[in-house]
Description:
By secondary structure, the protein is mainly α. Helices cover 73% and strands 0% of the residues. It contains three helices and no strands. It has helices at 14-27, 31-60, 62-68. The longest helix has 30 residues, at 31-60. The radius of gyration is 20 Å and the shape is elongated. The N and C termini lie far apart (43 Å). The relative contact order is 0.06.
Amino acid sequence: xxxxxxxxxxxxxxxxxxxxxxxxxxxxxxxxxxxxxxxxxxxxxxxxxxxxxxxxxxxxxxxxxxxxxx
Length: 70
């Protein structure tokens, strides 16, 4: 299934750009590939943290949720 891509432009301070470029060069990748990888990791982490918090809250309030469901 083809995906539609969106373009994102970000401004980086010179030192961050140089570090990204150096890392990309060391990994044999383009800076954009590393930026996309970083975005994916951040989104995955936030989703995981949100799920964990939902489970924590549901566990903590299990009795109240059970009573509300009756």
